[in-house]
Write a structure and sequence with these properties.
This protein is α/β, with parallel strands linked by helices and 898 residues long. The chain is 33% helix and 18% strand. It has 27 helices and 30 strands. The strands form six sheets. A nine-stranded mixed β-sheet has the order 22-23-25-24-26-27-28-29-30, sandwiched between helices. Strands 1, 2, 3, 4, 5, 6, 17 and 18 form an eight-stranded mixed β-sheet that branches. Helix 21 (658-668) crosses helix 27 (855-868). The radius of gyration is 31 Å and the shape is globular. Bound molecules: 3-acetylpyridine adenine dinucleotide. The site of 3-acetylpyridine adenine dinucleotide has 28 residues, from helix 6.
Length: 898
């Protein structure tokens, strides 16, 4: 349809009123809307921006309460798209005030002459997609409706203030202010009795300044928050120097970082550091006064592990106790209900010290909830507080509130966005929604947005969207829409990412928990800014994966699929490995590959502390075999697990899977004895199998001497170690002992057939490749021997074997033979549970402390071993924060009849 015809039908649709016709309509003239307008115009799109306020600024237009400042250092919280703009503005402080940021946005608007395309004082009241004309029709409360091909919401994440949900607000006879809608004219607070409700960032920034003016300030706190002193002043010299020495790479590092500020990935984990080292790191962060720094730079497990986090939270609490003189007030101000960072922490100036002032009272609403607001003040359940002014610092209907404020947004087939999002926002990449063609959101739910430096995330989203519109125009496409499959895949990936962090352990606006009745779930993307950017780029690189594109004169294009099927940390590991650009591992030769693996293992943390680690040797069929024993710190005697490492019968030793053995010893409360068996090509089949059997028998016979429980042992192994563990169970049965109480087989080799699907599906790209497996087989076992059950246990006699827990990983060439073994055991009447780990690769479970999403699998493995040993399931290991992934629950395989 030509644009003239579109215009005609669009004006008919507005019952005679004039309709403004544009290519793109943008809602919002804040950080995102201004940059959008600039880029769209430059790209030659006709554009209008609709803005409710009477000037530019967005959040910085509305939030003018005393003390409002940004809490990302201003040299980072700034546009970076134009070097001349960067050199044309100099920030005056480390953290700029709201008036300065607003002046900056005005300066940007002037510089690019943006205001002429902005309709101020204009609210969009409804938006409807017309499939017939392939355009959006926007109704407004001021001036003509707008007909646009593309509708982009740049409405901000924290723009819709939340109603206070307290009875009696309208009865109050004094003055009422909302931090998020602070008046433009001066508010006179001096000498008044002031009540502030709310202690989030807005409350914490404004309370010290209000206290300086008020006759008396009463702060009503429902939940205490962590606040770090900003130490505001000039921008820190070291950061400015870093930026000015190489602006391009500084900005690029920010774009690829976790949170949009260029700090490196922290590698040291809390338990590798002494108390003194941890304290030193904490003090440095406290002095730096930088939220992103303290959120990311102390130790690697601070944001993913409740124990690692608790160490930091406790140091924080000490600071609050040391600052607030009255111990009862101090205790009330200390957060205990959420891990540090799970809820948005705050940046403050004199916040805690303000409670030492004689004119400030803290009311702990956990002890005396607000009953109502009256004509003269606020009544709690136990007291009445008179006030001349009430300040609501009660927050926002975050992330979805401003989008849903345009109501209804009606997509294809008359679907309303509020219905589609009734159970929480569903998006693809946080940018688009299936069923709503040509609608984009900037920093929408499902993107890193509020967990990042917004300036960086906004620029990335704007560039991505405008570049797509340009590419579509060049290719002749006129509509773009996310597919349901892509959107569902993104929801799964979002859920996988949020399993890694501690956000879901807090009641926070990140999850919608602050708004009564709102569907709850972690709304921002928690996988990090850099990974997110690379995913968005990958979508484009893979032919707009997950999008349907149509146009009048071109064939429809739809590469349907899920952009990320790997677990997020697995994806990072595989990307890092891919960046190494290694040749095929088999090309190293056996000794070369052993050296490579040894070097690789030397750089990883050894694993968490256990009670004792002992080295020894045991007699093998052809000489002594080394072993390493891991004893739990709990009182013994403990059951013993005989463990066999992975490495394709060629690589590794009794120390190769040390982090896994330590982790499992702690989780199970059992002794793990990791055995160094002989390797190919020096010792070919059946050396490894015979060693495994001999070691199992010897360890069972000497359990007492090893400090273990006499009686049956358990066996476990990973990969080729899983193979020899399975074989040891069969040999024990054939040869009359020892007794084995259960077997844990993690990604085991079970058969010599290479034609199962997983060998093809996962032939390359997941570290363990098909060609590497072929090489391992060739080194270990001649073709004539391969059907022998001592190397292909799937072909053995399975009836009567010990109960088994078999783990397989989706992206592993060995996946299907593991599944086949579990099914064959079950068919033979062996009790079997099987964990099919979605999104994992061959090494997921042994890369402890790297692949964090492997925790829930190891928890289940430990529970299985304890069940096999007749022990109760309980063993606390500090990662309660990492809840088991319900989608990855093990399945019990029923015993097939006959
Ligand atoms: O809002 P909040 P905010 N009765 O939701 C309490 C950004 N920001 O405006 O925690 C009593 O954080 C509520 O209690 P609880 C920043 O991302 C940035 O302060 O729900 N109390 C909480 O204490 C920030 O996170 C800057 O139990 C009630 C407070 O009100 C986000 O905006 C500055 C209540 C609300 O805190 C939101 O911050 C300011 C009730 N009925 C904000 N309802 C910068 O520096 C709510 N509360 C860039």
């Amino acid at each position: 349809m030509s644009d003239a015809m579109v215009a005609a039908s669009a004006s008919e649709a507005t019952s005679g009123g004039t309709t403004q016709q544009v290519d793109v309509a943008v809602v919002g003239a804040g950080f995102a809307g201004l940059y959008l307008l600039h880029r769209l115009r430059r790209a030659g799109f006709t554009t209008v921006t609709l803005e409710e306020a009477d000037d530019v600024g967005g959040t910085w237009y509305w939030n003018r309460y005393p003390g409002a400042r940004c809490d990302i250092q201003t040299i980072d919280y700034t546009y970076t798209f134009d070097p001349e703009l960067e050199s044309g503005w100099k920030w005056s402080e480390k953290y700029a005030t709201q008036p300065e940021i607003l002046r900056y946005l005005g300066f940007v608007a002037d510089r690019y002459d943006l205001r002429r395309d902005i309709r101020f004082r204009t609210k969009v009241t409804a938006a409807t997609w017309s499939q017939a004309v392939e355009r959006w029709m926007l109704k407004t409360d001021n001036g003509p409706a707008v007909s646009c091909r593309y509708y982009i919401m740049a409405t901000g994440c924290l723009s819709a203030p939340k109603p206070p949900e307290i009875d009696g607000v309208k009865d109050f006879k004094g003055e009422i202010y909302f931090t998020g809608r602070w008046p433009h004219e001066e508010v006179k607070l001096a000498g008044k009795r002031i009540a502030v409700i709310g202690t989030g960032s807005s409350g914490i920034q404004s309370i010290p300044l209000i206290a300086e003016q008020a006759a008396h300030l009463t702060v009503f706190q429902r939940t205490p928050n962590f606040a770090l002193p900003a130490h505001n002043g000039p921008a820190p010299v070291d950061r400015v120097t870093l930026l000015e020495n190489d602006r391009v790479s500084y900005r690029e590092q920010a774009r690829m970082s976790l949170a949009g500020v260029p700090w490196p990935q922290q590698m040291a984990v809390s338990w590798q550091l002494s108390d003194a080292e941890r304290r030193e790191r904490f003090e440095k962060a406290w002095a730096a006064g930088d939220l992103v720094y303290i959120l990311t730079q102390l130790w690697a497990d601070q944001a993913v592990d409740v124990d690692g986090n608790a160490l930091l939270a406790e140091l924080f609490r000490e600071k609050i106790r040391a600052t607030v003189k009255d111990p009862e007030t101090a205790e009330a101000l200390i957060p205990y209900d959420h891990p540090f960072g799970a809820k948005r922490p705050c940046l403050d100036t004199n916040y805690y010290a303000t409670y030492n002032r004689p004119n400030v009272t803290l009311v702990n609403l956990r002890q005396e909830p607000i009953k109502s607001i009256t004509a003269s003040g606020i009544n709690t359940e136990t007291r009445a507080f008179d006030a001349d002014v009430i300040v609501f610092a009660t927050g926002f209907d975050a992330m979805t509130g401003a989008i849903m404020a345009v109501h209804p947004i009606t997509g294809r087939g008359g679907k309303s966005l509020s219905d589609v999002w009734a159970n929480g926002p569903q998006t693809y990449l946080g940018l688009t929604v299936a069923g709503f063609p040509n609608l984009f959101m900037i920093t929408g739910p499902g993107s890193p947005s509020v967990l990042s430096n917004m300036a960086v995330s906004i620029e990335q989203h704007v560039d991505w969207v405008v570049d797509r519109l340009i590419a579509m125009r060049e290719a002749g496409f006129t509509t773009i829409e996310a597919t349901e499959m892509a959107q569902a895949g993104w929801a799964r990936h979002m859920a996988d990412c949020s399993m890694l962090t501690l956000h879901r352990l807090a009641n926070t606006w990140y999850t919608g928990a602050n708004v009564p009745g709102k569907a709850q779930g972690v709304m921002p993307y928690t996988g990090g800014v850099g990974p997110y950017r690379s995913i968005c780029n990958e979508v484009v690189g893979r032919g707009m994966l997950g999008f349907k594109l149509t146009g009048p004169n071109v064939a429809e294009q739809c590469n349907d699929g899920e952009i990320v099927r790997l677990q997020p940390d697995v994806r990072l590991v595989l990307n890092m490995l891919a960046d190494l650009k290694l040749p095929p591992l088999e090309s190293f030769g056996s000794q070369g590959l052993r050296d490579f693996v040894a070097q690789f293992n030397a750089s990883r943390p050894a694993g968490r502390p256990v009670g004792e680690v002992l080295d020894g040797t045991l007699p093998g069929p052809d000489g002594p075999l080394p072993y390493r024993l891991y004893r739990p710190a709990t009182p013994g005697p403990h059951p013993i697990v005989v463990y066999f490492h992975g490495g394709g019968w060629v690589l590794g030793d009794e120390q190769a899977d040390e982090p896994f053995c330590r982790d499992m010893s702690r989780r199970t409360g059992m002794i793990f004895v990791s055995v160094g068996y002989r390797h190919a090509p020096e010792h070919r089949f059946p050396a490894a199998a015979e060693d495994a059997y001999a070691a199992t028998r010897w360890i069972a016979d000497h359990a007492g001497e090893l400090g273990g429980q006499p009686g049956p042992v358990l066996v476990a192994g990973w990969s080729a170690g899983g193979n020899v563990a399975a074989v040891a169970c069969q040999l024990a049965q054939d040869r009359g002992g020892p007794q084995i109480a259960g077997q844990l087989l993690v990604c085991p080799v079970t058969d010599c057939r290479f034609d199962r699907s997983s060998y093809n599906d996962n032939a390359a790209g997941y570290f363990l490749t098909r060609s590497l497996m072929y090489w391992f087989w060739d080194l270990y076992c001649s073709p004539a021997d391969r059907t022998d059950p001592r190397v292909s246990p799937l072909r053995g006699k399975l009836t009567g074997l010990p109960p088994a827990f078999v783990v397989t990983c989706e992206f592993d060439p060995l996946r299907d033979e593991g599944i086949a073994y579990a099914e064959a055991l079950a068919a033979a009447g062996v009790p079997v549970e099987q964990l099919q780990a979605r999104g994992h690769f061959h090494s997921s479970f042994t890369m402890v402390d790297v692949v964090i999403t492997g925790v829930s699998g190891r928890v289940q493995m430990a529970q299985a071993l304890r069940r096999f040993a007749g022990l109760p399931p309980e063993r606390k290991q500090g990662d309660e924060g990492v809840r088991p992934d319900r989608t990855a629950a093990p399945r019990e395989i029923s015993v097939a009849a006959g």
